[in-house]
Amino acid sequence: MQKFTSVHDVDDLGQLVAKVLSFKQNPFQPELASGKKVGLIFLNPSLRTRLSSQIAARNLGAEAIVLDIGKDGWALEFEDGAVMNGDKAEHIKEAAGVMGRYFDVMGVRTFPELKSREDDYSEKLMNAFIKYAGIPILSLESGTRHPLQSLADLVTIQEQWKGTGRPKVVLTWAPHIKALPQAVPNSFAEWMKVADVDFSIANPKGYNLADEFTAGVEVIHNQEEALKAADFVYVKNWSSYEEYGQILSKDESWTFGEKQLGWTNNAKIMHCLPVRRGLVIKDEILDGPNAIHLEQAENRVYSAQAVIHSLLNQ
Ligand code: CP
Q: What is the per-residue pLDDT across 258-267, written as a single tens digit (0 to 9) for each?
């Protein structure tokens, strides 16, 4: 694997999932990457991704070096040919080029601005890091995807599925007060499409995700109909892709609670976190036996460990 920015970068998904589960059984193997340096570059906030990636690197014997470049670094210019007479002090060509010489592998988090769909979906920032760092890059969430989260989600579904045949997995939109990226739902859809599951999406009209992620997936605008007989429900808010970055609905009848759980096959309930309790998912669910959000978060460590190890051993 040369980079890890989407499921399409993975050579053998079954092998990668097996590697995650193997690290979960035996996490501390410091001989595997002793002396290696893993840069973790954040343009945006993080709790899980930051900590799980640091622990993952340390489990492998590598040193994890975190830079909150959005807070502690120089303001970065990404435009090619820019005359830098404004507030941007350093060009990505030098910043990424330097970091590429310091690290063996580098993780980057860049949220979308949700102003221009074209800018965000071109992945200009992530692609610039890939182009100028010259070392393997791992996405810690980008404008359009969150592959480390999706890998952990897939592993969690495999671990938790006790039935026979393919589980029914439903991604459902839920309300939020802020305009959130589509990266997590895009990515989850992309990974579920190649997983051994029956996958569908529930969202209000105006919230359909981009075709490049959901082509061939059934999208249902009635939550009750969509959740019928679901074995796993992934609850997530996202802002509109169609009316880009807009909040079109705050309909709290989509908030996931006991009523929604009752429409399912006693489903396991998933969320990537952070989650706004009472608004996205009700306490009765998050504090109840069906919630597996903490299992997802735990699996972030072993997912990052498998990906970092693969990138260091390409
Ligand atoms: N799920 C997730 O990526 O969490 P953080 O934003 O806290 O890293």
A: 999 999 999 9
Choose among 153, 149, 140: nearest CA to 69. 140
Q: How remote is the CA of residue 102 from the centroid of ligand 1, in Å?
A: 25
**118 CA to centre of ligand 1 in angstroms:** 24
Does the global pTM surpass 0.85?
A: yes
Model pLDDT, residue 261: 98
- Tell me if 248 CB under 6 Å of ligand 1: no
Where does the chain hold its CATH 3.40.50.1370 domain(s)?
7-145+300-312, 148-297
Question: Residues near 6 by Cβ (< 8 Å), separated by ≥ 6?
Answer: 139, 145, 147, 187, 190
52 Cβ closer than 6 Å to some ligand 1 atom: no
| pLDDT tens digits, one per residue of 134-174 | 999 999 999 999 999 999 999 999 999 999 999 999 999 99
Instruction: Specify the pLDDT at position 185.
Output: 98
Classify domain 148-297 by CATH number: 3.40.50.1370
Q: What distance lies between CA 281 and its chain's CA centroid?
A: 19
- The topology (CATH level 3) of 7-145+300-312 is Rossmann fold (3.40.50)
